[in-house]
UniProtKB/TrEMBL annotation, chains A, B:
Source superkingdom: Bacteria
Lineage: Bacteria, Candidatus Eiseniibacteriota
Record Pfam families: M20_dimer, Peptidase_M20
Matching InterPro entries: Cyt/Met_Dipeptidase, Peptidase_M20, Peptidase_M20_dimer
Keywords assigned by UniProt, alphabetized: Hydrolase, Metal-binding, Protease
One GO MF term: peptidase activity
UniProt name for this protein: M20/M25/M40 family metallo-hydrolase
GO process annotations (BP): lysine biosynthetic process via diaminopimelate; proteolysis
Residues of the Peptidase M20 dimerisation domain: 198-356
GO CC term, one of those recorded: cytosol
């Protein structure tokens, strides 16, 4: 099919989307107005029911399947081709706190300056809604979907997708598909659409030391009582050197370095150093990096050990002469292929013990293995190419992104290639106050997904 | 004078104190009911005026002298002998927060089970009141004080006696004395009265690192952005080794080890290891110490570097994948003779710079040099001996205590020996909710001070 023919094919679809934009945003707003905070167990069943109803209204067969946590929705509708696209989304959202930092209430979606604000408006209800909007347009123009579409929509993405891997194993056959469209995606600071072929894994722990049953006065105990804060500081300092090298034996054993092809793809990405300097106010980068392709490789291909939080003793104004009995640190390891969180858990325990820190305990607060699709996979090319008429350029296919998610289970349990594509942008503020979506990117994502479904059905 | 004669001498004094105990506690309660929280600037002038009035009522000439902070009271009354005892107290108290942990309101003194509860009831208003009570008894029995008594009563002890050293320099002549009775003192867990000849100094800082203008997502920045919490953990780990040795060059240069005589005196003190294990729930002590004289020496003769607090990033329930832009630690150095806080400040800065941590800034939140009187000084012997008829044993004279205070200025500006003696006990809860004094120890302290004043006058 020529580019000209394709453009013509989508004139009706695009007209539909342009005309119905306001109505679609209204439907999205109703979805966002229904809180669904997985971490707080707030509104989960009501939101799941609302989403199920939205899918049924579009002719999908929908089943709400319980898990030990929040239910998962499975939905399916046949299409003109037997090719099957699996679309992964989630109906849960992050907690909205701190509420006082929102310009308008998080569960009362508000449109301002071309942006829709509200908790979950981007992550992930906007993505789900834009995809349903694309389906509306296709059904209007063709009265059938161009391919079979399955949705798997979970309610625990924001709390680590704890039951999803097991769910995928159990429902492997019903979820059989040829490819998977991921729950999110974004454009960069220059509005170039990005497609990520892989996600880093995560292993998130809280380290805790307790040295006594209560705090002591530092004048009394300072030279004779063990101090939990010192134990913690010393234990942490054995985890990573000042050169950023993680010192846990075996940690790097499974790491696959980027290939020449990975480097080539990353080199195609725009420079990010100045953007980061301006946005975050960092004056220098780690490892002597100053920018360019090496910075972009490091940000996604290096595993990390990040202290996310430290807590001990007195933290108020001024001084208090206290010797803390308890100290804790939240530590986030990002993992790259082929590391895995179970191995890192064993390595961390063995390391702490070997270093004399058997008093430092840890609780695992999150774990997901890393996963990646071959960036040269034809499905990824298809997703990228179908974006070109909408964004004015194909998506840049990047081998990895720095964030994490349950893609490993899709890749390895279902055996499908996974591509990201979505309506995020650098100021989406997902997980933060004033989460928002840009209406122009919402519309673009819907137009892109319509093209993707058609092309995906045709090539099957 | 024989012990028998002495006993007879004090029969009238003791009768007075026994009979008037209730009235004295009522006067103390009125003093405690007047808040005087230096850190919050609450009730300071009213409390100073109340104390001045209490002194005038006992025939003292009183002057309230302004400082750049809260005023200092100077009071003086001549006695039968020209020997002059300087008594140091303070009228300020610690903040009462957290209020919800008090059994009865902190500024509504309440008597329960032989204890008087209230903020400042022990630290330090009870000490001041017990001493005035002793003076009342002497004036009743003899119509004159046995020696000249001067009071210096400051209003900033709980915020580091910031203006007192300068005040002592300025008023050196008016404060001339032969010896000084310190603001506090206590019995140990077996009710043995303790006399401390020295106090450790203190150098309290807040270390701060800032690596960016705002937090980043750990999935984005983890491998390329500097992390303030890591910088802090690494910087801290260079301050002290896991063997408790402080690694700041020059830190130990001025340290005077305990003499054979110091060790001998400390050996006379009761075993404390089991008491500490029970009270604090510590299972082991630092430096391989298990108890005995070595533990008691370490607790007061070792300088310390204590992490009193750690703050960075996310500290709530569960996980948040944040890369902190800011981290801080409160660190308390206890100093022993002849260290001094100015030198430690320079050493700390030089050390951090030399270790590559010029990004770690610190703010000084408190500093007092250490100071000690010769434990064999005759004044200390006198204070100890005069306690014997009251406590059934002389005070154990110990070369040092672990806490800090402005005794250095008394020792070096005024040139007076300084002895501690007081009504504290291990469960006084000073600086904490339910601060209290034991009425029996209040009475004992008054009886002891009466004997001390008489003996002090006689030996002049």
């Amino acid at each position: 099919m020529s580019a000209r023919a394709r453009t013509a094919d989508f004139a009706a679809v695009d007209r539909f989307l342009d005309r119905r934009l306001e109505a679609s945003l209204a439907e999205l707003s109703r979805l966002v107005a229904q809180p669904s905070v997985a971490a707080q167990g707030r509104g989960m069943e009501a939101c799941a029911a609302q989403v199920a109803e939205m899918l049924r209204a579009r002719g999908f067969a929908v089943e709400t399947i319980p898990t030990p946590g929040h239910p998962v929705l499975l939905a399916e509708r046949a299409g003109e081709s037997e090719r099957t696209l699996l679309i992964y989304n989630h109906y849960d959202v992050q907690p909205a706190e701190p509420l006082e930092l929102w310009t308008s209430p998080p569960f009362e979606p508000a449109l301002r300056d071309g942006r829709l604000y509200g908790r979950g408006v981007s992550d992930d209800k906007g993505h789900l809604m834009a995809r349903l909007f694309a389906i509306d347009a296709l059904l209007d123009a063709r009265s059938a979907l161009p391919c079979r579409v399955k949705f798997v929509i979970e309610g625990e993405e924001e709390i680590g997708s704890v039951h999803l891997p097991e769910f995928l194993v159990r429902h492997r056959e019903r979820l059989a598909a040829d490819a998977c469209l991921w729950e999110f995606g974004y454009v960069d600071h220059r509005d170039m659409p990005l497609l990520h072929a892989g996600l880093r894994g995560i292993f998130y722990v809280e380290l805790t030391v307790e040295t006594a049953k209560r705090d002591a006065h530092s004048g009394l105990g300072g030279s004779i009582f063990p101090n939990a804060a010192w134990r913690l500081a010393w234990a942490l300092s054995t985890l990573k050197g000042r050169d950023e090298r993680i010192l846990i034996p075996g940690f790097y054993d499974a790491v696959q370095p980027p290939s020449a092809r990975d480097r080539e793809r990353i080199a195609a990405l725009a420079e990010v150093a100045d953007e980061y300097r301006a946005r975050y106010g960092v004056t220098s980068f780690l490892r002597g990096l100053t920018g360019g392709v090496e910075l972009r490789i490091a940000e996604v291909f290096e595993p990390t050990c990040t202290i996310c939080g430290l807590t001990a003793g007195y933290q108020g104004q001024g001084s208090k002469t206290v010797l803390p009995a308890r100290a804790s640190a939240k530590v986030d390891f990002r993992l790259v292929p082929d590391q895995n969180p179970e191995a890192v858990a064993r390595q961390l325990r063995a390391h702490l013990d070997a270093q004399g820190f058997d008093d430092v305990r840890f609780e695992v607060l999150g774990k997901e293995p890393p996963g990646r699709t071959d960036p040269d996979h034809p499905f990824l090319e298809l997703v990228s190419e179908t974006a070109a008429p909408v964004y004015g350029m194909p998506m840049a296919i990047l081998p990895m992104t720095g964030g994490s998610g349950p893609n490993h289970a899709f890749l390895h349990t279902l055996g499908v290639p996974v591509a990201t594509a979505g309506l995020g942008y650098p100021d989406s503020r997902v997980h933060a106050p004033d989460e928002n979506l840009r209406v122009d990117l919402y519309l673009k994502h819907a137009k892109h997904v319509a093209r993707l479904l058609v092309a995906f059905g045709e090539r099957g």
